[in-house]
Design a protein that fits this description.
single chain; alpha/beta; Aspartate Aminotransferase, domain 2; Aspartate Aminotransferase, domain 1; seven-stranded mixed beta sheet; five-stranded mixed beta sheet; 12 helices; 38% helix; 15% strand
Length: 368
Amino acid sequence: MDKASDERAAALLHHRAQGLSASDPIALPITSSATFYTPDMANLSHIYGRSGMPTWEAVEAQLALLEGAETVAFPSGMAAINAALFAGLGAGKVLMLPSDGYYVSRLLGAHLATYGVKVIEVPTLDMTAADFTGVDVVLIETPSNPGLDVIDIAALCTRAHAAGAMVVADNTTMTPYLQRPLDLGADVVVAADTKAPAGHSDVLFGHVASRDPAFIARVRENRRLTGSVPGAFEAWLLHRGLETLDVRLSRMCDTAGKLAPRLVAHPAVKTLRYPGLATDPSHEIAARQMTGFGFLISFELNDAETAERFLTDCRMIVQSTSFGSTHTSGERRLRWGDKVAPGFIRLSIGCEPAETLWTALQRSLDAL
């Protein structure tokens, strides 16, 4: 983390208190009303739950503070990506997306094709030199999920803008604390706050952020018309989770940085990717555009059977298909159709004490 991240973390913890009156609750109340008292139509802050409600507006204020941009909340990360792409595309438009990114985003690309959008899939690293001529929207995901390839966001945005394309950056793996795509030239950020921001595997949430008021207005109207709105309780859970995000990220990233060199040195591990390793192909770019290297480690064991045995035997790995929670989780990604080897594992480091976690990982690797 850097000084600017520390300032954002402190501001987030105190921004609600600055607007409180005497005897107001310090903790954010849950306002779950679908309707609001409207005796007339003058000076109404809230009318109907689909247009806005206080609890998720409070979360939007938190996220806007972290992003440094106006933010619109959604009930999942995919809902946020969907809204951002629909706001920037239409029949006859062209979308470029990563062929090695999150697999559901690729499925969304196929869905958009049914609406007359032309979809071009390009591997993350090849996007650096891709021809953006005729492309309307470029969706990037860096580090890529699950391969952890990193591309130069600023350089890509310069080239894309010169060709007339808008850049949408999926920043789920890094969060605004570790990487700031809008500051690097991206037009839009999307993210699944289900992951590290909420951090406890108990809520689905997402957001879109942009410094383009007209674009954000389209995204907000998309939410109102489609009804893709977050619930009050889910917003409350995220609001609470965001207040400890800085602390949790520090622990998770620090532990990942300690364990990655040990994992790559273990004889059972064939290949390993972690941007924090000086030997990683992504290290130089990651060091320039990130303020931390994240908590995800991808590595390959000998085969599918070996990987499954490791995941099952390690007592400190929860097998699940998400990441960013307080507990360490892992899964064999080929089962979801990712273009990876059969023994490829995505490991999400949690908040466990580093040495205790390493002892469990090492014991299971030694037993393979």
